[in-house]
Structures are given as C-alpha cells and as structure tokens.
Amino acid sequence: MLHHPGVIVLHDFYLSHLMYDWCNQFFSIQKFTSLLYYCHGYKSLQQYAHDINQASDDFIWKYCINQKILQTARGVLIHSQHIRKLAKINYNVRSLQNWHNIPMLANARIASSANELKWFKQHSNSSKHKIICSFGYIGPLKLSLEIIQAFIQSNLASKGWILFLAGSEGGDKSYNNKLHALIKNNNLENIVLITGWLSNERYSCLLDKTDISIQLRTNSRGETSAAVMDCLKSDSALIINDHGSLSEIPDDICIKLPEKFNLSNLSEAMIFLADNNSSRDALGIASKKYCNLHHSADKCAEAYYHTVENIYSSSIHPLDAVKVLINDLSYNQLPELEQIKLINRVAAENPSFPAQKRLFVDVSAVAEEDLRSGVQRVTNKICRELFEQIQFEWIVEPVRYNKNTKSYVTATSYSCSLLEVPSYLAPLEAPVLPNIDDIFLVLDLNHSVIEAKKEWLNYIKLRGAQVWFIVYDLLPCQFPDYFPRNTNNIHAQWLTTVLTATGAICISKTVANDLHEWMLKNIAIDQANLLNIQWFHLGSDFKKPPEFPSISVKRSSNLVKFLMVGTIEPRKGYLEVLKAMQILWEKGISIKLTIVGQEGWKALPDISRQNIPETIILIRFLESRFPNMLTWLDNATDEQLFKCYKSSEVLIAASYGEGFGLPLIEARNHGLSIIARDIPIFREVLNNHAQFFSSNNHLELADWLLNWNQNRHASITKYSDNLIFDTNSLDGITWAESCKQLIEILDIN
Fold this sequence. Notes:
Layout lengths: L6 E3 L6 H11 L2 H12 L1 H12 L4 H5 L4 H6 L2 E4 L2 H10 L8 E3 L12 H11 L5 E6 L8 H11 L6 E6 L6 H13 L6 E3 L5 H10 L2 E4 L10 H8 L3 E5 L13 E3 L5 H13 L1 H18 L2 H18 L3 H9 L2 H4 L3 H14 L7 E6 L1 H5 L5 H16 L4 E9 L4 E4 L1 H7 L20 E4 L7 H13 L3 E6 L3 H4 L8 H12 L4 E4 L2 H14 L2 H4 L3 E4 L24 E6 L8 H13 L4 E6 L15 H14 L4 E4 L4 H10 L2 E4 L8 H8 L3 E5 L2 H7 L4 E3 L4 H14 L4 H4 L15 H12 L3
Parallel strand pairs: 1-2, 2-3, 4-5, 4-7, 5-6, 7-8, 8-9, 10-11, 10-13, 13-14, 14-15, 15-16, 17-18, 17-20, 18-19, 20-21, 21-22
Antiparallel strand pairs: 11-12
C-alpha cells in the first residue's frame, strides 16, 4: 500500500495484534517498534520496553498500529460510527473526510445437509430442546463466562433449554479452565456445549436451529461482528449489550442490555425470551427484515461501487504531489540537499491523515550537551513531565536543530535517554514536518543560528502551527556587565525572534513584566502589544519534609551551615559572599559554607570571564585556609545536592538578577531559612518569606551577616521584621504542577 495506495476496508480499527504477529513472522521486532513509535511516539516505546520485561502484552491492547495504513489509503471504508469515535480519541478529528460508512454485508445462508442435521442431533441430544447460542471465538472479550453464569442463574436447563458456545476456545488457559470447571461443578456437561471450530455448513445448521442468540462484547477493537449480522438475519431473537458497534443496532430488533450489565440483567432477558414465544418470534422477524433492507448484497454492492468511484474521481493523495515534484525537470537539476528540503516542504504542504497533533519541543542545546544545570535542568524536568501528562491525541516530539541541513530533526537519542528507552529501540532521526494545529515549543535556550531558525519558525507558522518560546530571563540585556561581551546584543537578537512567535511563556511574572517593558522600549508599541505574553512558575522535585521548625535555624548548634546553589558566574554574587565570609571567618565566626555549582564559561578565555577566575582562586585559597568552613562541589549529582539541602540550615541567594531561582523553592521544601538579595524576582518567588539584604559590596554584606549571626538566637517576635523569618507559609509547586500550568497555557488536553 505504501507504493500503490488504494481504498481499504477497515474491519478492526486497532490492528495492533495483526501488526505485531506480522512483524514477528516476516520482519523483526524493530519493524513493529518503529510502527509503534510512528503512531504513538516515545511513551509507547517506553511501555513496550517495560511490558516485554514483565512478559506482558498490555502495549498491544493499549495502542492502535494503523496510522501508516490509514495515511497511505486514498479512502477508508468502515461499517460503524464506533470506528469514527475511536479515531477521534486517537487522532486529529478534522482529518477524517475521506472515511465513508458502508453497511456490512449479511452473508447468504448455506442450506443444511443431512450430515449437518445428524451432527446437530448428536450434540443437542434431542430435537425437543430449545437452543440458546453464542457464536464466535470463546473468551473474555465475548463474555463467555458471564453467559454460562447467567444461564445457570436463569434455571432454563430445567425447562428443556440448552446452551451452545459455538466457536474455538482462546489461548487463555486459565480462562478456559474456569469455563470447564463452572460447567462440571454444575453438572451441565450435556447442557452447556462447547463445539470448537465449526465448518460453514455446521455453523449454518446451528444458526438455523437457534432460538435465542447472545452476542456480547467488551474491550471492542472497533470490529463489526459478522456473527451478529448472521444472527440478525436468522430467525432467532438476539440479545446484545450496548458496547462498541453493537450500540448502533436499533433497539426494536433486539434486546439491548447496558454496556456494563449484571448477571441478573442477562438471565432475566433469557427468561423473558424463553417464556414469550410471540416476543421471540417478533424480534426474529424484525431483525431479518432490517437485514434485508440495510445489509443485503445489492445494497452493499451499490454502496461500495459509488463510494470507491467517488474516492478515485475526487481525492488527491499526498504521494501524488511528491510524484509530480520528482518528475519535474527543474527539481532534478537541484543539488541533493535542496531536493531533500523541497520534498520535505511539499510533504508538509500535503499532510497525510489521520494523525495525532504533535507538540514539537526544541531541545537543541541540551541534546548536544547536557550540563545538568540551569536552563538545561529545567528543560529535562519539563520535557519528562510533558511525556507523562500528555496522552493519545497529542504526541510529544523533542527535536533539535541540524546545522548541516539547516532544519529541525527528531531528537531520538535525547528522548530515549530521557525516558530510559533501550537504544536498540531508538528510531532513526527524521525531518520535522509540522501540520496545522501542531505546536512548536522552544523550551531550550540556544542562541546559535538565530537567523536560520527565525526563517524556519516563520515557515512553521505559515503552515498553521503555533510557535511558543519559553523566556527564562532578560538578564543579558538588563545587566550586560555580568555577561560575556556582546551577549546582550545576541540575546536582544534572540528576543526579536521571539517577537515573531505566537506567544512567549515566561517563567515568572517578573520576567513577563521585564519582557513587556523591553518591547515597549525597543520596538513599536503596536507591535509590542501583539505578542501574547504568559507566565508560569517552575517546580521542584524535592519532597517536603512532614514538619517544619517554627524557626528554621537550629538553635542547638554553634556552627551554622550555609548553602549556595548555582553555576559560578558574575551575576550570582559568589565573589561578594566569599569575601564577606572571609571577614567573618577571620573574626572566628562559626559559619560553614557549601557551594554546589559548576565553574561557568569554561569555553571562554580567562580575559573574557570577568570575575570568574578571581572567584575560583579565592575558593581554592579559602578551602586551604579554612578547610572546615568551605566546601565546593563543582560536579554534584542530584543525590549529592539533595544531601546538601538536608544537611544545611540557611540558603544564601546573592544573585543580582534571576529569571526565577529554583534553589529558593528547593531550599524551602527542605525547611531551610533563606537569605536573599532584595530584587523583584526573589520577592515574587518568596512572597516576602525570607530575610532580604541590599548590600552594595562585600563589606556591607559582612556587616549584615555579622548582625544576623549575633541575633539568630533571639526571640522570633523581636526580630521577625527583618532578621529571622518563619518561612512555613511559603509553598513551592512540583514539576508536575508546573508542567500542568504550561499545558494549560498551550491549551493542550
């Protein structure tokens, strides 16, 4: 079908069992997992890996594997609206215009021969018995056990009724054993009969002799039952439940039980039809009339003919556009890279449906090198939560910018590593082709190739997809002296790219205000007001202790344990704090300081790193002079950071500017007291639940800390205005809650 797309008749929507067996028999398991990823993304691969390890096949039942087949089809013929409902659950509902309902054919009956009649008499023991029969595969999906239980409850065996289960038993041996045990324990071996597989002739014979047919379903895969059609066309009265395509059978030609019926519902329906010959006959006549009117060979053949002809005369398949392009002489004269770009563009302009909506997440920087701190740490946390919280209709697809092709490709290695999907299951990287209603989220911060990205992102918007940027801060523009030379201009250029997007999502209200003010100063007012600016707060994954002390600094210890968290760079205020601590230590003040953070800007020459070299030299000097007072962890794991929070008492946040300040929330969740520089973002995040300082140099900070240390054991009433503050009422949010805010802004789910 990939090479010769045609019209398909979809009897089973999911196709997952079929595709799994087909790939195992003729190809490889990687073929199946590539189809699984194509249809449902990385989360399905994660579940596959988990289920295989647990010897489970849950992934087959959860995920449909039909997208390739449906997308290559020129048209899709279905027999029920139930399949449309399943498609709407799994796919973009706007894309089902080439799907057409065709009534399912009710097969012509085969006349019973003398041999089949003899077979029937042997199995029914007497021609005087009345017959209840369930046709088809025997197993939990057909509720076979419930049928036997309801038959026993009805006590119809005492009135001369027998029950047939006409079909083969399934592969679930435990279920089969329950069936046989139930029959044996109730002495029904000659009353409840399991036939095994039946030839067409014997099947038809049993259908002719059946008085009441029962066809029940659960966990429908979208199928329309041929057995149900056969029962409707027979003389028997039909009992069904309101599930899947059975729901569409008119209520007046059968007895329709609730979808989740109880045994009493079913046994009472059996008793009613067994005791009321006229009602039983009336339903048999009505159902046969309905079949002849709507499901006859003439009716179905005519519908097939006109629908297929209409599909071929009116529809244009996406592959047609690509074939036209390839046959164009001008295309063949282009360089290979330009040919690939052109094919990708034509494919994007002629999308294949059905397809889930996709949330493309730009992780270009972290996919290239994960520094495990700052923006990249946020990217990993949010990305992992997006995978957890977004289901089915949307697929999360991390992507990275390929500088060679100047386009985006799927970030398969990053995604599989993040979700711990085995590398052998990793799909090949593929070009990113957004469709209408897709969303492109620039979650990572990457200043490289800004102009090239700008052109590509504009193209995404023209395709009807939304483009959103996460804005972490405007610090390079606000404090150019704290960043490498020209960073302010590069960041300003990046911000002009943000202006072309659908919207900007800032990580705090302070950053949102800063962005709006920057726009008013640097671009036209009317253009500044066009950008949709939203904000949310970042989360924390450190669990809160069950109880917090009323005063967060421990009074029993003479040695106060301070903590600073963050990359060592000029704006973080490390040099000022270290010089202030040196003064206190030389005075004999018992304060221990632990620094958790990597050395920043290592790729730059020292002359461009401002005060970082001086800070590192001072750290090394103070470590040797005051070995019990200063510890620096320059490559800490999350576990080590967690231990530092647990063993510390006070967090110092000395940054001159931040977009949010994650360590504040993490420290709070561990019950630490917080000392923070008095800047707007810290006031927003901490909601005044901290001790704020406004020093201009290390001497002023040393005096402030000395005053704080002298009064830290004083009563909370006397010093609560500025020196000791109870931070119990400060609540952070989890990464799950943070991601939920982001999803709500994007209007997903």
